Write the C-alpha cells for this entry.
Amino acid sequence: VPRSVDVADLVERAQAGQPRAVARLISLVEDASPQLRKVAEALAPHTGRAQVVGLTGPPGVGKSTSTSALVSAYRRQGKRVGVLAVDPSSPFSGGALLGDRVRMQEHATDDQVFIRSMATRGHLGGLAWATPQALRVLDAAGCDVVLIETVGVGQSEIEVVSLADTTIVLLAPGMGDGIQAAKAGILEVADVFVVNKADRDGADATERDLKYMISLGRRERTDVLWRPPIVKTVASKGQGLDEVVEAAESHRSWMVDHGELERRRQRRAEAEIEAISVERLRTQLGDVRGGEALDRLAKRVVAGQLDPYTAADELIEDLHAGA
Amino acid sequence: VPRSVDVADLVERAQAGQPRAVARLISLVEDASPQLRKVAEALAPHTGRAQVVGLTGPPGVGKSTSTSALVSAYRRQGKRVGVLAVDPSSPFSGGALLGDRVRMQEHATDDQVFIRSMATRGHLGGLAWATPQALRVLDAAGCDVVLIETVGVGQSEIEVVSLADTTIVLLAPGMGDGIQAAKAGILEVADVFVVNKADRDGADATERDLKYMISLGRRERTDVLWRPPIVKTVASKGQGLDEVVEAAESHRSWMVDHGELERRRQRRAEAEIEAISVERLRTQLGDVRGGEALDRLAKRVVAGQLDPYTAADELIEDLHAGA
C-alpha cells in the first residue's frame, strides 16, 4: 500500500457507490494498514444508516443460496445491498477460495450489490475486529442493508452475528439441526427463524420443534417481548424470501419502538471499542521493557519459580507504569 | 465454594494422586474462583514434569477411541495418565454431556487415570485460559503424560493444541479430510500423523497423500528438521497404539536434543501470561471511571461523532492514568 493513498477521496468515491473504492477501503481496514485510523475517522460521520442483518445456521441448510435469494428480494425493493460472507474457519480472505463471484454469480454484474468474503487470516481475534470495520465501509457506501453471513455455528459465529441489528437463523428439515443449534446457543440469538428447503418432508415437524423450543426459551426470558417469527422458504426456487424481508422489517420496527435498536448499537459499539483496545493492549504487553519483560517472566514460570497469575500482575504493573 | 478451602492440603492430596482433590482443583481453576491465585501459587513448584500430548483431527476419525486406546498403551508402560477432553463448541463442562465415564468407560476404575471434559462455558477466551491451568493440576498430580483431545479442527482447537509438547494429528481413509485439515492449518502443527481405521480401503492412499503434503510443507520450511512420522492404527482394535507412543517419545527426545522442548514451553508460558493479562485488562477496561468511560465513548461512536479507534485510544489512556 503506497503511503500516498488519498483516504478522503476514497471515502467520497465509496459514498458515490464505486465498487473499487469500497473494496479498497475494506482491504485497508482488514489489513490494519497505517491508513486505518484515517479511514475510520473519515467513515464515522457517514455511518449508522444501514440495516444490519445477520444470517447463520448449521452447515447444509442453504445459507449461501438463501443469502443470494435474500439479496434479490432486497434488490426488488430497489435497495442497495452489501454482503459480508464470514468464515472463521478459513484462512482465506478477499475473493480467494469460493470467490465472491462464484458464491453470488447472479449479482456479479449488479452495481448496487457489494459482496466481500472475510476470513480469520490465522488469527481468531482478527475477525471480531475487522468485520465491524468492513460493515462501516459498506454503511458509508450507502448500503441500505448489509447482510452478514457466517459459515458455521460455533461461538465465533455467534460473536460475528452479534454485530447484526436483526439475526436470522436458518434451519432445514430432517437434519436434527435444531438440537445442534440449541447446543451452540444459536436459538437464543435468533430474531427471525427461517425453515429453508420447506418443500421437503419434515418441514412441518421442524417448524413444530422450533415453536416448542421458542416456547421453552420464552419461559426463562419473560423480559423479552419479541416473539421470533418462523418463515418457510425454498431459497433455491426463490420462494418465501419477500416474507423473510418483511419479518426483518417488522423486527426492526419493533426494535425502534422499544429502544432496542439503540441498545443493541450501543452494546455493539462498546464491544468494538473493547476489541480494538484489547488488541492494542496485547501489543503493548509484548512491548513492555522492549519485549524483555514477558520473556523473563515466562522463563520463571517454566522453571516453576512463579505462577502465571503473579507473572501477569507484574507484567500489567509494568505496563501501566511505562505508559 | 466455601472460603475455608485449604488449598495447600488439596494440592498435597492431589500430588498423592487422590482423584477427588484433582477434580476439586480443576474446578477451582476452571471457575476462576477466589482461590485461583492460591491454587496457582501452590501448584507452580510441582509443575513441568508431565509430557503433554495433543490429539486433534476432523470429526469422524475416531479421536475419542484413539485417546482411550492411547491411554491403555501408556498404562501398559505403568505411566500415570491425565486426559483433558476439550470441546470449544460445547457449553458443557465437567462431566455433563458425553460424560467422562461414557467417553472412557474402560478407564473409569483405574486410579492412575484422570479424565476431565473442558468446555467454553459460553466464553471463547475461557478455554485458552482454563486449559493450561487444568494441565498444571494434572502435572502436579504426578501424571507422566497429559493427553489433550480436541473435538473439532477450527482455529480454537489449534490454539488449544498449541499447549502440547507433541501434537498428534489423526486422519482416516476416504474422508477427503486431508484437504479439510490442510485448510484449517492443522497439518502445520502436526509432530506425528496417525492414519486411523487403517484396515479400511484407502488407508494407503491417505498415507500417500499425507507424505506428499508433508513434502510440500518441508519445501517451505527448511529450518524444520523434524519429519513427522506417519503411524497406522486401528484404534477400535487397539492396534498400532504402542507405535504412536514410540513416535511421541522419539519426538520428545528430538525436542530435548535440539532445545525445542524448552522453546515450546517458553512460548507456552508467554502465551499463558499474555492470556491472563488480557483477561484482566479486559475487566479493567470495563471498570474505567466506574464503568462510565466505555459507555460514554460508545454513545459518541453510535452517534458518528467519534471513530472506534480514537475511542479506544481515549479509553486506554484513561486506563493507564487510573492504574
Remarks:
- The longest helix of chain B spans residues 260-287.
- The radius of gyration of chain B is 22 Å.
- Residues 91-101 of chain B have pLDDT under 50 and may be disordered.
- Residues 195 and 207 of chain B are 7 Å apart (CA to CA).
